[in-house]
Amino acid sequence: MDTEEITWISINIVTLTISLPGNIFIIVVNIVDFFKNRRLLLSDQLIFGFSMVNILHALQKWNILYKDLFHVVKNEYDKKAIYVFMYLNMCTLWFSTLLILHFCLKIVNINHRFYICLQRRFPKLFPWIIITFILGYFFLSLGSALDTNQECFLNKTFSAMDLPDSPRCYWPFLIFLIICGLCSLFCSVSAMTIIISLLKHLNRIQKNTESSRSPNMESHIRAVRTVTTLLAANILMFSSVFTVTMITPKAIYPFGIVISICHTFSSYFLIKGTRKLDKTLEHFLNHCSSSKNQW
User: Fold this and answer.
1) How far is CA 80 from CA 83, 145, 150, 239, in A?
2) Where is the signal peptide (predicted)?
3) Which of 50, 113, 230, 242 is 20 to 30 Å apart from 268, CA to CA?
4) CA distance 58 to 17
5) pLDDT tens for residues 172-211?
6) Torsions phi, psi for 148 (to 5 deg)
7) What pTM did the predictor assign?
């Protein structure tokens, strides 16, 4: 292992470690809130699912980095790891897309019959959408990962560009990239709709109030930051999986750093953009500060 590879792995470990606390905090707060109130709001469920997938993705990256660092290489393991990588990235994109869509349906009002119907029915359709997608793509990935056909993985690069010209070899990658592209496109349209609507609303608030920093305006600014961060994370993650899967797997280290940074910033802005999480974090920090002063 050369110095450059060790450097990339070390940076990956640092960024991966930094990305964990925010997602763990979100998961713990929502679990405590669920046992306390026996329910979670739809936005909290989506944020919880998004953070859970990020943690699972982080655990897989820890495993990959460990095997790369100590040269633990198994061809059969690597074959399955690429499908786990695709599946977890797909789930991250899907939860991010649904979360932005939920924000769009809550914030943006469009006087159209289909949009109004979607606003009313989305909370009821949400469980079936999640279950259908996650289980459907899980069994699709499982079937591909357990496929004993070795011709699709004769080399150790696992790049789709290196696969033989056989539909059996490249169709899982093709389906994966199509769904990722649709998620990113849908996420981008919803996010841009929210941002444009909120910016117009902010201009109206500034014109109608003397104070440029009213509480209502602050909440809208937090919403814009949250949606913008999720959109940026969505685009960067899609770019990373496209590059790693279709062009060169050697880019997995730099894009692993990018994904960890995306997870860090997305968890931070989700915490700051959610009143429950923000208040819990503030209370926790104040408690730590008071305990430190007592010592």
Assistant:
1) 5, 5, 12, 22
2) none
3) 242
4) 9
5) 677 777 887 788 788 888 878 888 887 787 777 777 765 5
6) -85, 0
7) 0.81
